[in-house]
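[Q] Does anyone have a clean structure-token version of this?
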Amino acid sequence: MKIGMNSTCPCGSGKKYKKCCLISEQIVISGSEDRLWQQQYTMQDELTSRILDHARSKYGDMAVFEAWEDFNCFDDELEPLNSESHDLSIFIPWFVYDWIPCFPESSLIESDWTKNLSPANSMLKKRDKHLSELESDYIRACISSPFTFTEVVACDQGNHFYLKDILTGKEWKATEKNLSHVAQKGDVIFCRPITVRNLTTLAGCAPFPIPPIYKSQLIDIRNEIKKKFKKIDNEVLFECSLELLEIFRSLYKDFINAETPDRYNSDEEKFSPQTVTFKIAKPNAALEALASLDVTMSKEEILNDAEFDKSDNLELAEFAWSKKGNNKNKSWDNTILGHLTIENNTLEAYVNSTERAKLFRSIVEKRLAENALYVDTSPTPADLVPEEEVYGDTELFQDDLPEIDPKLLEEAKSAREEYWANWINEKSPILKNKTPKQAAKNQDGREKLEAMLTQFERDTTEYPQPGESTEIFQDIRKQLGIGK
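[A] Here you go.
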């Protein structure tokens, strides 16, 4: 008989069952899950290696290269297969558990191939006695479970996540110790969930999650598949496996190649960090000629901060290249155009645009003349760009930034609030040119809206804007009648 959560524990402690033995029973179950996961995780790589060896010994090295061509059949240019190939985490399990050569087009000898069997299935049929019971169960689970697109419904980072198949609607609680560290609710993961002995794991998985906003495209793809097959099940997913692989790679390319918005400094010049380098014969004279470029410090202050040797030869000086006022923010007293360093016989200027790099070069060549020899202008490595320099025209430290006019902040806040207040009535290409209000009337539209709002919440958390908060999106959900 099942014991109720609030019933008195049968052990005689007098406590409720949920406060007593249920806890220890759950710990035992959790512990056994961890042991089984570790066992499968350790076995997985070794088993895959044996299946690959089986495929090579029976069919030769050409089998894996032919499979690679099939795997990339929709690509115009075939990338070489090597250890650096970014699709290996999907290709290898696909090859060993899914791939069957296409005859008569295949270059392999058909009589050598166990017809309609993948390398793993061939090994299972012909060498079953050499496989452990767990290995056999694992292979059977893999060859009967297709790759698919799943959504992270909830995540216990470092342990489990709850997945829902976007295409079939099937749900799993998957034990996963690696990707679950970075996955978030709403992420899309291309993977093969398998269940072996009541434990669900991922036997092949993309190395990264895709953001929620891409789910809308998959909903449209789901509808296209339904038009052809009426109902989507594992058999359909296997039949569409190459198309699904191509869809994943297409989403992957869109994701990693997504253009970041162009950024500009306050002179409306495109943000492009560059370093201008000169060799100088007389460092002291160079400092004397360039000190007036800094309107934030006097020459005496720059000299006081500089370092000299015992003979008063300049060894190091650092100061700003600046000007009075700011073209974009009228309340600012000055604009930082660059940061200058004179170190022994080298002069370097860090600037944030091509225009400023050219201007600085012309200033130095005019002021220093024969005392300076231009070396080059080179892109500044991203890891050397101060975080607060990203939007340009700031001092090296955040504390030095001028306060933004509260009136401007309030205007920006009001504009964003007005935008989101009207958003539910604005047509969107993602929603097939419907408004959110119209899209919320059917299930597909509600799914798309939830994915969009989850993405908006994430963006707002990572890149806060005046007038935006997660509460706004909760309110939008209420207006549309959709829930998290």
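[Q] Thanks! Anything notable?
[A] Confidence is low (pLDDT under 50) at residues 22-30, 382-402.
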